[in-house]
Amino acid sequence: MKCNLSRILGEKRLKVSDVARDTDINRGTITRLYNDTATRVELDVIETLCKYLNVEIGELLEIQD
């Protein structure tokens, strides 16, 4: 699975610290998603990020072969 958070934040000109502050999601969690090193993430975190960034789950996460 690939996380596109770094691309999305770049397009929206947002920083990890902005997202952490605005969403109350742990900065370490966002950093792991940003660096695509997260091994598991709570569904409520994904939901919060999608709503905050105004993206669909498929835009944030994609399955790779």
Summarize the structure.
By secondary structure, the protein is mainly α.
What does this protein look like?
This protein is 60% helix and 6% strand. By secondary structure, it is mostly helical. It has a single domain (2-62), classed as Orthogonal Bundle (434 Repressor (Amino-terminal Domain)), CATH 1.10.260.40. The radius of gyration is 11 Å and the shape is globular. The protein has five helices and two strands, in the order E-H-H-H-H-H-E.
Low-confidence stretches: none
The CATH architecture designation is Orthogonal Bundle
Number of spatially distinct domains = 1
- Average residue pLDDT: 96
What's the story with the biggest beta sheet?
2 strands, antiparallel
Helices and strands, in N-to-C order? EHHHHHE
**The CATH topology:** 434 Repressor (Amino-terminal Domain)
Q: Report the count of strand segments.
A: 2
- Termini separation comes to 8 Å
Structural Rg:
11 Å
Which short descriptors sum up this protein?
65 residues, Cro/C1-type_HTH, 2 strands, single chain, mainly alpha
What layout of secondary structure does this protein have?
Elements: E1 2-3, H1 5-12, H2 16-23, H3 27-34, H4 43-53, H5 57-60, E2 61-62
Antiparallel strand pairs: 1-2
Helix pairs in contact: 2-3
